[in-house]
Structure formats: C-alpha cells, structure tokens
Amino acid sequence: GQNIDQPTEMTATEGAIVQINCTYQTSGFNGLFWYQQHAGEAPTFLSYNVLDGLEEKGRFSSFLSRSKGYSYLLLKELQMKDSASYLCAEYGGATNKLIFGTGTLLAVQP
Amino acid sequence: GAVVSQHPSRVICKSGTSVKIECRSLDFQATTMFWYRQFPKQSLMLMATSNEGSKATYEQGVEKDKFLINHASLTLSTLTVTSAHPEDSSFYICSSRLVEATQYFGPGTRLLVL
C-alpha cells in the first residue's frame, strides 16, 4: 500500500501564508497531486508535480522532492474562501491509480 | 477542465433496496473511470477502476457483487449499490481520466440508507 501523511487540521489568518506538508512512499511513484475540496463537494484539481522543484500558479504553489518523498502546498494571501480540505494524492503509474491522503482541513480566520 | 456529471446528486433509500448512480464524461471520451467513496471527515477511498468494455477492477475489501459497476460506453459508467444497508451511507464520487494521470471528478452522490 501507499502511506500518505498530512496534518489533519490547520488554522491560518486571512492574508497570511500557509504551507501544508505531505509525505508519501517513494516506491512506484509517478506524480503528486493536490486537490481542494469544500464540504459536500467533489475535489477540484490544484496542481500536479512530476519533477522536483516548485511550481507556482497564482496564489498557490506546490513543491516536490522525490528523493525525500515530500511535497507541500503553499497558499499565499489567504482568503476566507480558501477554507477547505486539501488532499494530497500520489499517482502510481504502474498501478494506474490515484491514492489520496487523509486530507488537511484548513480554517482561515479573519 | 473537463466536465464530469453524476446523477442523482442525493438519494435516500430503504435498507435492502438497490441504488444506481450514473457518471458521465460530458466533453471527452473516457476509457477509464474511477469510483471513490468518502465517509464524513475522511479522505477519498478508491473502490474500483471501471474500464470501458471490460470488467471493473475492485480494490481489496470492496465486494464486487455488492457494488456492481458497468462501463458500457466511453462516456458512461454506472455504480449499483445492491441490497443497500445503513453502513453503505456515504458520499460516492466518480472521476474520469483525460490524459496521463489527471483525473476530473464528478460532483458526487450522497447516499443515505434508512
């Protein structure tokens, strides 16, 4: 199986920066996804990292270190609407599956 | 991004009845679709991989005779929960894979079994 670990909950202040970490097993790794999920809704795609390094997309950035089995999602200029669960998911090319972590529930406070 | 629809969005049924959930790729053909289940405050758990024109591949611990999956066309996959029980109450989400690894998710179906 694939063990994907994320913090369960995080709290941050509106306008601030927050980093959500994710660690995963490196065997069979082919890519790392981040999804955002609001309560009662389906996940929406945020980012996909295959190579090491930081990828920036507006207020959201995602980092990957394949040798360390580590990724993080960086959210800048936090807004209240960013309150949601953030799911880290590992793609195993050999298995053709996307396996999700437990998700991090982010609460943005005024 | 690609559009995936699910129907119904919510369903309430009596224990022992069967419920069918449809998942459609509206703007692309998907040879592979995935079915997930999500319990409250938990992450998505992959149930099965649905392959067009062939049998679905189920994850360990998922009963294939209870969760029937049919992928009859490149745009439609169905999940039937047979003889539903209260413990089957959950949020069921499908996804379609467009290119490489990226999956696009449907809006989900909330099932409540009384």
What does this structure look like?
The complex is a heterodimer of chains A (110) and B (114). With 110 residues, chain A is mostly beta strands. Helices cover 0% and strands 56% of the residues of chain A. Chain A is built from no helices and ten strands. In chain A, the strands form two sheets. In chain A, strands 1, 3, 4, 8, 9 and 10 form a six-stranded mixed beta sheet that branches. In chain A, strands 2-7-6-5 form a four-stranded antiparallel beta sheet, with no helix packed on it. The model of chain A has no long low-confidence stretch (mean pLDDT 91). With 114 residues, chain B is mainly β. Chain B has no helices and eleven strands. In chain B, the strands form two sheets. In chain B, strands 2, 4, 5, 6, 9, 10 and 11 form a seven-stranded mixed beta sheet that branches. A four-stranded antiparallel beta sheet of chain B has the order 1-3-8-7, with no helix packed on it. Chain B is globular and about 40 Å long. In chain B, 35% of the residues are buried. Classes of the chains: A mainly beta (110), B mainly beta (114). Chains A and B meet through strand 3, strand 4 and strand 9 of A and strand 4, strand 5, strand 9 and strand 10 of B.
